[in-house]
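Bumping with the actual sequence this time:
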Amino acid sequence: MGHPVVQVDHLTKSFNGFVAVNDLSFSIEEGEILGLLGPNGAGKTTLIQMLLGLITPTAGEIRILGLDLKRRREEILSQVNFSSTYISMPTSLTLRENLTVFAKLYGIKNPERRIDELLDIFEIKRLKNTITRHLSSGQLTRLSLVKALLNRPKVLFLDEPTASLDPDIADKTRRLLRAIRDQSRLTLLYTSHNMKEMEEISDRILFLHQGRFLASGTPAEILSLFAERNLEDVFLKVARGNRTTDRPKDQV
């Protein structure tokens, strides 16, 4: 393997004495889809916010694309993007207007062509001139994914990107993301509460629990470690406090 695209060393974040992320170390290789799994409150969102430089770690270091996030955040973020079902855009603008604003912020050449290309891929080009507040939740999710791919990122952080999509569009979205990964060596960090989706899309999974990594490995390795048939059963076992492994998994 080459150098990691994302390298996290001993990352910790505390809020008024509460440790949300506790001494995490891990890496993500170029072209890898890394699934970040864990119950609500496990620290997933806090971790992603630190990876984006939105909040400052209490301790530890983050390197993305070989660069120190603390010192070179602007340079890093020009090659990174993020999408979440829970992030909204200005509702009074049309799809085209919203995406044009972001395209200009990203310094994209021929933005209209890139916007049309992605709208077509996500099957919402017919809505190009629709006011954003008139979109359904699934259409808004696809708009967020289009925004996240505008700058052809090398690293993409996705927080429950298919949560509002119907099964057909969710499946098409996963296939599209894998195809982009295969074509461009895009590196993805992916969170979802859809356990079947996590098994399907992830090359490797990090299971986060109470701010620490409980387990890591391929989906098959995680199932073997917990002696379960699927990730949903693993998730329920951890969320309900019935853990069957005490193996330390902090350094992954």
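The tokens above came from a reply further down the thread. The domain at 1-79+154-252 is CATH 3.40.50.300 (Rossmann fold).
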